[in-house]
Amino acid sequence: MDKVFTKPITKQFEFDEDVAVVFDDMLERSIPFYKEVVDLTCKTICHHVKEGAQIVDLGCSTANTLLALHKQSDKSYHLLGIDNAEAMLNLARQKVHAYGASVEFVQADMTHVDLGSKDAIIANYMLQFIRPLQRADFVAKIYQALNPNGLFVFSEKIVFEDKELNKQMIDLYYDFKRQQGYSEFEIAQKREALENVLIPYTEEENKAMLKNAGFSTIETIFKWGNFATFIAKKKV
Predict the structure, then answer these.
(1) Annotated binding site for S-adenosyl-L-methionine
(2) DSSP code of 7?
(3) pTM of the predicted model, to two decimals?
(4) 139-152 pLDDT, tens digit each
(5) Mind listing the pLDDT tens digit for each residue in 7-36?
(6) CATH topology for 17-233?
(7) S-adenosyl-L-methionine: is it a keyword of this entry (predicted)?
(8) Binding-site residue set
(9) What are the tens digits of pLDDT across the range 54-81?
(10) Rounded distance between C-alpha atoms, residue 35 and residue 70, angstroms
(11) What residue spans define the domains of the chain?
């Protein structure tokens, strides 16, 4: 059970061992329709790619999405998970071993790693942690790494242009967290820990960034309040 923010924080948010051991619980209780988004991500990719496809999950954390791909498809994929947090990858390896899945993991800084050539790239709730000055260049790097007709599927927390609407969406999100059992203190603690660490864009800013990188098809395939899932396709 996630109890990370029941005590006063002493540092900004980090994906360390304290977070890793409760991360799956944190995801399901902090992200609306988390399981449904993972399911939609995997089904979208499985419908699109062929046998032997090269698929990478950037910021794979404990490998939930990669394991879902392994379970859902009768095709054989080359699955790669990249994360910069050793604690996350240690848990990911344990889970993959338990399920008998074939997944490669690399611990690396996402902005510097060589992505090679991929048929599908996943980045769920990861881009928002990349500094804005680096984010556009990183998305361009993702575009270059995709093979023709390749897919980039990613989810993000978003903000709204309209300040009143944005506040309403934030309030609705905090209501969601309260319904998951988080206290007012925990909500405030996490908000403070993530300040200047998680920097979201608007839906339009995310789409503009994808367009500038060269993607031809850009769609929002899921949205709940201030969370959205996007799909971007590289030209054939």
Answers:
(1) 34, 59-61, 83-84, 124, 191
(2) S
(3) 0.88
(4) 999 999 999 999 99
(5) 444 444 444 455 445 667 778 888 999 999
(6) Rossmann fold (3.40.50)
(7) yes
(8) 34, 59-61, 83-84, 124, 191
(9) 999 999 999 999 999 999 888 899 999 9
(10) 15
(11) 17-233
Alpha-carbon gap, residue 161 to 210, rounded angstroms? 19
Torsion angle in degrees (nearest 10) through CA of 93, 95, 101, 103: -30
Q: Count Cα atoms within 13 angstroms, Cβ side, for 54.
A: 11
Q: State the DSSP H helix or E strand holding residue 91, giving kind and residue range, or none if neither.
A: helix 86-99
Quote the CA–CA distance of 59 and 41 in Å, as a whole number.
15
Q: Which two tokens stand for residue 159?
A: 């903000």
Q: What does the alpha-carbon distance between residue 160 and residue 166 come to, in Å, rounded to a whole number?
A: 5
CA distances from residue 33 to 16, 21, 141, 213 in whole angstroms, order as listed: 24, 21, 29, 28
